[in-house]
């Protein structure tokens, strides 16, 4: 049988009922230097029901569990190779990223490069050009993906970190949607022009 939840410290303590554990919690009051201290109780043991749940299928538009490509546009006058390594760690969650330029230059991990190359503008690094494909790999996590790099002049307010990182699949999808929307607008304009021309002809006949 389950034991009743205690309502006060006098009814149950960790020593008398190991199913519950008392913690000291500071409750804010009107004075910062004199908070009200209360006892809170959390359940640490006891029967728990765990419902079976199937794992979600890999998403093809995800760089982690699928085969999606990522695309990055960097500020060509400020973004360095070191900034790229930092982005891979902070934004992509990599521990020890390794960079391989598929155009013919292997950079490896951060420790494989000297300070001069790390501080060099990415656009000036060997075999770097607009639209280059980089193979990114983190062997510590068995995580790899492809990164498409573009160089441009970015607005500091919109890209304060000096880059814009996107999913290449999402970019292509957006371009396709824009193209379809453009075709739709053109057809609608043609229909309106045709209707206006027909109206003018009818007016002239009348």
From TrEMBL:
Residues 1-20 are annotated as: Disordered. Residues 173-200 form a coiled coil. Keywords: Coiled coil. Residues 1-18 have a biased composition (Polar residues). This is Uncharacterized protein.
């Amino acid at each position: 049988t389950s034991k009743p939840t205690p309502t006060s410290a006098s009814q149950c303590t960790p020593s008398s009922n190991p199913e519950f554990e008392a913690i000291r919690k500071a409750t804010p009051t009107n004075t910062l230097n004199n908070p009200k201290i209360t006892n809170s109780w959390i359940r640490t043991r006891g029967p728990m029901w765990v419902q079976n749940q199937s794992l979600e299928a890999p998403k093809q538009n995800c760089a982690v569990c699928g085969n999606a490509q990522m695309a990055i546009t960097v500020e060509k006058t400020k973004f360095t190779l070191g900034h790229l390594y930092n982005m891979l760690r902070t934004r992509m969650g990599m521990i020890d990223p390794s960079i391989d330029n598929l155009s013919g230059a292997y950079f490896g991990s951060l420790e494989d490069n000297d300070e001069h190359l790390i501080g060099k503008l990415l656009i000036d690094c060997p075999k770097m050009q607009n639209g280059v494909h980089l193979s990114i790999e983190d062997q510590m996590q068995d995580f790899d993906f492809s990164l498409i790099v573009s160089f441009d002049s970015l607005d500091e307010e919109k890209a304060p970190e000096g880059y814009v990182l996107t999913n290449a699949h999402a970019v292509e999808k957006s371009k396709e949607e824009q193209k379809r929307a453009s075709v739709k607008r053109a057809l609608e304009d043609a229909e309106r022009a045709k209707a206006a021309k027909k109206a003018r002809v009818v007016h002239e006949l009348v």
